[in-house]
Specification:
With about 425 residues, this protein is mainly α. It has three domains: about 70 residues, no CATH class; about 170 residues, Orthogonal Bundle (Cytochrome Bc1 Complex, Chain D, domain 2), CATH 1.10.760; about 160 residues, Orthogonal Bundle (Cytochrome Bc1 Complex, Chain D, domain 2). The chain is built from 17 helices and two strands. The chain has a two-stranded antiparallel ribbon with strand order 1-2. α2 packs parallel to α11, α6 packs across α12 and α14 packs across α17. It binds heme C (HEC) (2 copies).
């Protein structure tokens, strides 16, 4: 053990607390604490290695804060404001999809606070569960479990959703709601719902505000983000929404293939093998060139988000009515009601977000594509595109893809994985946790 760590921290616990509380955002520091400047302190703790501390550093740091998890943020804050959008993406078209409200633009300090909140287990009643418990970065911000486990051991009734590209979700200017059944109108509204959910995090917002205000690292983060240390649920919602919106994904094999092909006079899409190209064509152009059978009709590139909920004939009868529960008018004049309609998350990183569908019924992409091919059940609300195949006789079974074509579609879906995103430090867990 390096005695300097220990001495500095034990002698100066109060100051250290303040230092972390004000985080990266207090530029000037008084002379009497000059030797404990943020830089010195962070260097002591190897923050430049993306907060990867050794076991001893962790325990010293945690002890200084009474044994709680402490977020360790980089000296130079990550840039959440300027998201690099690759050149092959039409910026003007993308901006039209932007669902960011005018009163809550992404700021560096706001999204930084949002990142801390996202990973903070104090947001649940018994300090066991954070957003990331069910939205894991390595899994494209979804949960490998079919149903997620809430703070008290209870199970969610639906499969967790991946959280990429929610910023650009205003497809066809329809502004679909959040969740599988679209019940939350905006992200600001949505992010407070899991916190109060009886299974997921079990907190009352008034209690949450009081609890967070007492944690040493929040006053500084709130001041940096919103101008004062006051902790309100509205600010919590705004910061979480900023962080979630900052998670955008446009760096996959699929993107690189387009970027490479731009300006070339060739039909081949460079970087994709023959199977992936075949899958791409089936996804974009449809089966036998029939547009209705194109996956992109609903999973719209370049975000691969959906514009509205659909019924895809998973069952003849649905246990879960999806959008139907909300008692809204049918979202499509060709279907009598909204029963059995759902909105899927972006297919970006879909290879990482298994299991699939609102109830996590399919373990693999092969199973998903087999459903579209031969497993579609007739349903009164089945999307017209699927019903058409058999002239609306009610005997629909699917697109009828050959085994080779099914494999090609799966291969294409796997080109949508963004390896950077799932390792990106700015979206990672900032907390110094106890060794297991
Ligand atoms: C116990 C697990 C669990 C926790 C904790 C949790 N979520 Fe979720 N999340 C889910 C599930 C399950 C769904 C789908 C629920 C549904 O549609 O009814 C979901 C859906 C979402 C969606 C909708 C995505 C879309 O495409 O419409 C967002 C956004 C989201 N969660 C963000 C968060 C945030 C932010 C937190 C922390 C404040 C959080 N979640 C905490 C399980 C969880
Ligand atoms: C008519 C619109 C529509 C078309 C066309 C369509 N899908 Fe879907 N897709 C959906 C809906 C709706 C869901 C969610 C259904 C549910 O959970 O009940 C979904 C879910 C998925 C999922 C699971 C996503 C997740 O995170 O769980 C994948 C993968 C998928 N679709 C791929 C495809 C492929 C590949 C095609 C083309 C063969 C396709 N889709 C065609 C509407 C469509």
């Amino acid at each position: 053990m390096q005695p300097t760590h220990h001495l500095m921290i034990n002698r100066r616990t109060g100051i250290l607390t303040l230092l972390f509380a004000v985080g990266c955002y207090m530029p000037a520091w008084s002379q009497d604490t000059a030797s404990f400047s943020r830089e010195t302190l962070l260097k002591q703790f190897d923050a430049d290695k993306n907060s990867r501390l050794d076991a001893e550093e962790r325990s010293v740091l945690r002890a200084a804060f009474g044994g709680i998890d402490i977020p360790l943020l980089p000296a130079e804050p990550y840039d959440y404001e300027h998201v690099p959008i690759p050149r092959h993406i039409n910026r003007a078209k993308l901006d039209k999809l932007d669902s960011t409200p005018a009163d809550n633009p992404i700021t560096i300090a706001g999204a930084t606070l949002g990142r801390v909140l996202f990973y903070d287990r104090h947001l649940s009643r018994n300090d066991s569960t954070s957003c990331a418990t069910c939205h894991k970065q390595k899994a494209g911000f979804s949960d490998p479990r079919r149903f997620s486990q809430g703070f008290d051991g209870g199970r969610t009734s639906r499969n967790s959703m991946g959280l990429v590209n929610l910023r650009y979700s205003n497809i066809e200017e329809l502004e679909p709601g959040l969740f599988w059944d679209e019940r939350a109108a905006t992200l600001e509204e949505q992010v407070l719902m899991p916190i109060q959910d009886k299974v997921e995090m079990g907190m009352k917002l008034v209690d949450l505000e009081k609890k967070l205000a007492k944690l040493p690292y929040y006053p500084g983060l709130f001041r940096a983000a919103f101008g004062s240390t006051e902790v309100t649920s509205r600010r919590i919602a705004r910061a979480l929404a900023q962080f979630v919106r900052s998670i955008v994904s446009f760096n996959s094999k699929f993107d690189r293939s387009i970027a490479d092909s731009v300006g070339r006079q060739t039909n081949a899409v460079s970087g994709l093998n023959a199977t992936e190209q075949r899958g791409r064509s089936l996804f974009m152009v449809g089966v036998g060139g029939v547009n209705e059978f194109a996956c992109m009709m609903c999973h719209v590139p370049p975000t691969f988000n959906m514009d509205m909920s659909h019924n895809i004939g998973l069952d003849a009868r649905y246990h879960d009515r999806g959008l139907g529960v909300l008692d809204r008018e049918s979202n499509d004049p060709f279907t009598p009601s909204n029963d059995g309609k759902f909105k899927a998350p972006s297919l970006r990183n879909v290879a990482l977000t298994a299991p699939y569908m609102h109830d996590g019924r399919f373990k693999s992409l092969e199973e998903v594509v087999a459903h579209y091919s031969d497993g579609v059940h007739p349903h009164p609300n089945l999307t017209l595109a699927f019903a058409k195949r058999d002239g609306n006789t009610g005997t629909t079974s699917g697109f009828g893809l050959t085994k080779e074509d099914q494999a090609a579609v799966v291969a294409f879906l796997k080109t949508l994985t963004d390896e950077n995103l799932v390792n990106e430090p700015r979206f990672s867990d900032p907390f110094v946790r106890a060794e297991k």
